[in-house]
Amino acid sequence: MLSSTFSPVPDLLSAAPAVDLRRILRAVASSTAIETGQTIQELEFQLQSDSRYSALELAAPISA
Known about the structure:
Order of helices and strands: HHH
């Protein structure tokens, strides 16, 4: 059996950029604005001011 410290598969999770909540809110707002005709700014404000989910955090990979 061959043993090596070289990993042929890159660790994609460690190479992923950090998740930015503002970017997620902008993406959701802009997508919704296209479908509903509302402004992006109006929807972003609505998403930011909705306190029902304020205690939730974005999922993050568990480090091994």
